[in-house]
Amino acid sequence: MTSVTTDRLPAAAGERDQRIAWLRAAATRIRRHALTMGEVQGQGYIGQALGVADVLAVFYAREGGELRLRPDDPGWEGRDRFLLSIGHYAIALYAALAEAGTIPLEEIETYGTDDSRLPMSGMASYTPGMEISGGSLGHGLGIACGMGLGLRRLGNPARVFNLLSDGELDEGSTWEAAMACAHHGLDNVTAIVDVNGLQADGPTPTVLRTEPVVDKWRAFGWNAVRVDGNDVPALLDGLDRVRDHAGGPSVLICDTRPGRGVPFLESREKAHFMPVAEHEWQVAHDALEATR
C-alpha cells in the first residue's frame, strides 16, 4: 500500500475501507479524463480505457496507489516501472498519469493533436511517465524481463509491471519472454493481463482461444492470480498475493468489461474501437456521474 509521499513509500497505517474509497474515486476520475480525451478526437479506444480504469487506479491513485513513484520526477531511478505493451491503450494511461499528477490535468485536452505530448499511441519519447513505446503487440514482456534482470543486477529494489491485453497472448514473443522471466526467477516482474474478451478481428475466443489462461501461465512457471478487474477489493487481494510471492514472476489476470461505468457503452457491440456520436459524449459523462 502506498500513500501520497514524494516517493510513494508504503504507508505505516491506513484502513482498507478508506483505501478502497480512495481508489474507487480515482477510477471514476480516470474514466472522466478518458472521456474528455475521447471527445477531443471524437473517437478512440474508449471502451478499453473505461474497462481498465479500476486496474490503473489501483496502481496510480495519489492516495493508496501501489506504485512507488515521484509524479514530478518520472525518471527517478527508484521508481517502479509500469510498461504499457498495448500502445493503443495510451488514452487510459494518460488518464492515469493525469490522476497521478505526472501530466497536468489541462494537458489531456491536447490528446492526439499536432505537437501534443499525448499521441494516440504510446510513445516514450513524447510523454512523461510512459516507459516504452507501444504499437505492435508482443514486445512489452520481453522489455520487462530485461528491465527486471538489470534492476536485480544493480541491486535496485524497484518492481516492473507490464500491462498486456488478452489479444497480446496470441503473440509468440510474449510466451518466449514468459519462459525467460521464469527461468531467471524474476520476482520483481509482474504481468497484468486485461482480459476483456475483444480483439480487432472479433471476440478473443473466436480469433484465437487463450483459455485456460491461468493454467498456461502456471505451466510456464508463473504465480498466476485471477480477479475481477472491475472490483477494487478483489484487485487489492490479488496484489497482496502477487506482492507476497518470492522466487519467480507473477501474473495478475484481470477480467474487465469494455465501457465499464457508462452503461450504454458497456452494451455496445463494436467495442474494440468504439464509435461514439458527437451528442453521446455528454450523455456518457452524465451516465458516469450517475453511477458513482
UniProtKB/TrEMBL annotation:
The keyword Repressor does not apply. The lineage of its organism: Bacteria, Bacillati, Actinomycetota, Actinomycetes, Pseudonocardiales. The keyword Ligase does not apply. One of its GO terms (molecular function) is magnesium ion binding. InterPro entries: THDP-binding (IPR029061), Transketolase_N (IPR005474). Keywords: Thiamine pyrophosphate. It comes from Pseudonocardia kunmingensis. Its cofactor is thiamine diphosphate. Belongs to the transketolase family. This is Transketolase.
